[in-house]
Design a protein that fits this description.
Blueprint lengths: L26 H6 L5 E6 L4 E9 L3 E7 L5 E7 L3 E6 L2 H11 L10 H17 L6 H19 L3 E3 L2 E3 L1 H20 L8 H34 L3 H23 L4 H6 L4 H16 L18 E4 L2 E5 L14 E5 L2 E4 L5 H14 L37 H10 L7 H9 L21 H14 L16 E3 L2
Antiparallel strand pairs: 1-2, 1-5, 2-3, 3-4, 6-7, 8-11, 9-10, 11-12
């Protein structure tokens, strides 16, 4: 018995077996190639006619030719005069139309336009395998797929940049401001009414973009927090705050900044920031303890978990050193539990005096810097267990480096001092004039509260003043 061999043709290659027809295409693709009846007619005398076949009759062809920009006419071509006709391949037309429709980098597609174009590209790739334009269309498809993925991530395209909606709005305002600044440089800026009208239109667009920002933030940030996209939420809030503080003042040339900021509702921004921090901590981030972190074993140092926290003071006004309250992220670190004592600092001075301190000095420190503490001139302040006082920043820098540590940044110090609950002061929210921290009982209260949160190893708690060092947590 003879065996029958079956040849299996992959579905993707089925269209290689016959020419693509309009009926094979979706309605959207058919609309794209509606002028696909292109024909090239070669006459017996050698002349070539190219155009769209309008109708074919028994004795002639009606061909619509294009002559120049926007000029078309239809002519009858007798079949007796024709040597050869060439009909356009539909797959070629499909590809050419798709390549012609590529988005202009200066005018990117909207999300809906991008989705429609992406679907047409995918249809071509599925139905026109083997076509001479296949590789070109596939490259465009890959690029548009990246654009579509960015849209699905919630990004927007401004120029050649993909940005979050907040950054996109701010960038759009920057571009409008740049255009306005260029118009202002023109010598006929104040005399040409057309330029003034165009300028005022740009200004209104910029104002409209600023008004949309607040509504966008009110919708976007809670949604990002609910999805636990805390980095995106924090970035948007920070960009929004920076926009109001930097861009609006610069754009409008506000001379009386204090009055301007007093008229603004900065609680709106502060509440969005609190929402991010609350969602972040509720999700369990930024709450690790030293016991949960392997490898953290440093004598007399406290582990401070990293993460987002609010830096600054909620009630601060424009011009205050702690204005505005804002989101900050810090990496985990270790900070000294106690102030540097006179005994510890004296060991540093004696060691560097014996063998030199050059390797520990800050580059800007005065030459031959003397590191003795000023408090050592007063016996009542020079006890070994008392915190060292009367040292400047260069002294503290050198000591920290000598000890294998470094000075805390402002953000790290505030994070360590305010704790996870963003208290106003290390001891809580009681103002200094109501918390007697300059008396023994007050200091004892603060020490006990600190020990309660971070139980120390047995050692007498020191009594205020001095400086602290930090180390990066493993």
């Amino acid at each position: 018995m003879r065996k029958i061999l079956l040849l299996v043709v992959p579905l993707a290659c089925a269209h290689l077996c016959r020419a693509l027809e309009k009926k094979d295409l979706s309605p959207e693709a058919q609309d794209l190639v509606k002028d696909s009846n292109r024909i090239t007619v070669i006459l017996k005398d050698g002349k070539v006619i190219e155009g769209i076949l309008v109708v074919e009759r028994a004795q002639d062809l009606m061909v619509r030719e294009k002559k120049g920009e926007g000029i078309q006419f239809t002519r009858a071509v007798s079949k007796d005069d024709i040597r050869e006709t060439k009909r356009a391949d539909l797959a070629d037309v499909f590809a050419e139309k798709l390549l012609e429709a590529k988005p202009d980098p200066k005018k990117p597609f909207s999300e809906s336009e991008c989705r429609r174009y992406h679907a047409l590209l995918a249809e071509y790739l599925a139905k026109c395998a083997g076509n001479r334009y296949f590789a070109d269309v596939r490259r465009v498809f890959e690029s548009v797929s990246e654009d579509l993925a960015n849209y699905e991530r919630g990004l927007e395209k401004v120029g050649n940049e993909w940005l979050t909606p907040i950054c996109a709005a701010v960038r759009t305002m920057d571009l409008l401001s740049e255009q306005m600044a260029e118009l202002e440089k023109r010598p006929d800026f104040r005399t040409d009414s057309r330029i003034r009208t165009y300028y005022e239109g740009l200004d209104e667009k910029r104002r409209a973009a600023a008004r949309r920002l607040a509504d966008m933030m009110q919708r976007r940030v809670p949604a990002l927090v609910a999805e636990k996209k805390f980095d995106e939420a924090a970035q948007d809030v920070c960009d929004f705050l920076r926009f109001w503080i930097e861009r609006i003042l610069t754009t409008n040339r506000i001379e009386h900044a204090r009055e301007y900021f007093q008229a603004m509702d900065f609680d709106f921004v502060a509440n969005l920031q609190r929402l991010v921090v609350q969602g972040y901590t509720n999700a369990g981030f930024g709450r690790e303890t030293q016991a949960e972190v392997s490898g953290v074993r440093e004598k007399d140092m406290v582990y401070v978990p990293g993460g987002y926290f609010l830096m600054g003071r909620a009630g601060a006004k424009y011009g205050d050193a702690d204005f505005p309250i804002h989101l900050v992220y810090v990496s985990p670190f270790l900070i000294d539990r106690f102030e540097v004592s006179n005994a510890e600092y004296r060991r540093f001075v004696e060691d560097t005096r014996a063998r030199g301190a050059a390797e520990y000095e800050h580059p800007d420190a005065p030459p031959l810097k003397k590191h003795d503490a000023a408090c050592w001139s007063f016996p009542e302040l020079a006890g070994d267990d008392q915190p060292v006082m009367g040292v400047d920043w260069f002294d503290a820098y050198a000591y920290a480096k000598w000890a294998g540590k470094r000075l805390p940044t402002e953000a790290e110090w505030e994070k360590a001092a305010r704790g996870m609950d963003s208290r106003e002061y290390p001891w809580g929210n009681l103002s200094p004039d109501r918390a007697p921290i300059n008396f023994a009982a007050g200091r004892r209260f603060v020490a006990l509260e600190m020990d309660r949160q971070n139980p120390p190893k047995p050692r007498e708690v020191s009594s205020g003043g001095g400086c602290s060092c930090v180390k990066k947590a493993p």
